[in-house]
C-alpha cells in the first residue's frame, strides 16, 4: 500500500495527504530502533519513496508532529526510562538517546518536561 493520492499537481505528479498506516509504522519503528543515531529526513523519505519535502508534510499530517518534534519526544521519553535505572549517568543517557552534547540534552529535557534531570530523578526514585 502506498500513500493516498489527492490530485495531480501542475507537474502531473500526484500530491499526497498522509502516509499509509503501514508506512507510518515502518517509519516509527525505524526511529525507535535508531534513536541514538543521526536520523535524516532523506533516509525516512526514501523508505516511503517520497521526496524529503513531501515526506515532511505527510509525516506531520499523519502524526500531528513534525519529524523533529516526534524524535525529540521519543528521545526524551526513552531518556526518562533510562534515567530511572540505577548507575546510569546523564552522559550515558544523553548518548543512548541520540544527543551528542550533554548540555543540549539538559536544556531540551527541561524545556520539554518542565523539570531538570536531577529533579526528575529525585521524583522517580520516591
From TrEMBL:
InterPro entries: AraC_XylS_family_regulators, Homeodomain-like_sf, HTH_AraC
Transmembrane segments: none
Pfam families on file: HTH_18
Domain HTH araC/xylS-type: residue ranges: 25-123
Keyword check for NADP: no
Keywords: DNA-binding, Transcription, Transcription regulation
SMART domains (UniProt xref): HTH_ARAC (SM00342)
Domain of life: Bacteria
Protein name: AraC family transcriptional regulator
Organism: Herbaspirillum frisingense
